[in-house]
């Protein structure tokens, strides 16, 4: 029987804004207009280098950033250094713009919850099923949940930069299950990454995958979670 649920953050509960929206917001704040062609070129290069945290991954990670990239979610400093390094490799921004671009992705305005997140979390709460958010991340995402009125529906946050372990290592899922006070076999892991989120299976957790799609293209991606609970006698 499923007695608790762990959710990934990016691509599962929330979606980051597009590279174009991200860039446009910072250029507007900086009072730095670009011609359409130049803007499109900036957006293309930022996408190619994977410079937007939570967005597309780099097509290629420069050799001098490889170790930092793979360990980026273990600390706030490593996360900032990794993405600032990619911004610098893109060769577009001043140091001031680099800071502004990096800082933007940590604001609630840069994120949007999927349409069924709040109804799903409220239904889980009404059933007495505790929820943990388990995320590979280098910053505190709690303000994003608070901004959307969802923080009260989350019982525990297990963030890699705080725990010191990244998914798919089983330890981060073990800590989450302990935080919920449940055996691993009774906790469902929901995520969009079959490798990282799939690491929960090493503990015996059931896993449900969702598609990492734009918000308007995934209106009911979490429906299988409640279906699983109903099928497992979760009511």
UniProtKB/TrEMBL annotation:
User: Which is one GO molecular function term here?
Assistant: hydrolase activity
Q: Does the keyword Acetylation apply?
A: no
Protein origin, superkingdom: Bacteria
Question: Which positions carry the signal peptide feature in this UniProt record?
Answer: none
Q: Which keywords belong to this entry? A: Hydrolase
Which InterPro entries does this chain map to? Answer: HAD-like_sf, HAD-SF_hydro_IA, HAD_sf
**Pfam families per the record?**
Hydrolase
Does this entry carry the keyword Hydrolase?
yes
State the PANTHER family in the record: HALOACID DEHALOGENASE-LIKE HYDROLASE (HAD) SUPERFAMILY PROTEIN, PTHR46649
- What's the protein called, per UniProt? Putative hydrolase of the HAD superfamily
Q: Which organism is the protein's source? A: Kitasatospora gansuensis
Q: What is the lineage of its organism?
A: Bacteria, Bacillati, Actinomycetota, Actinomycetes, Kitasatosporales
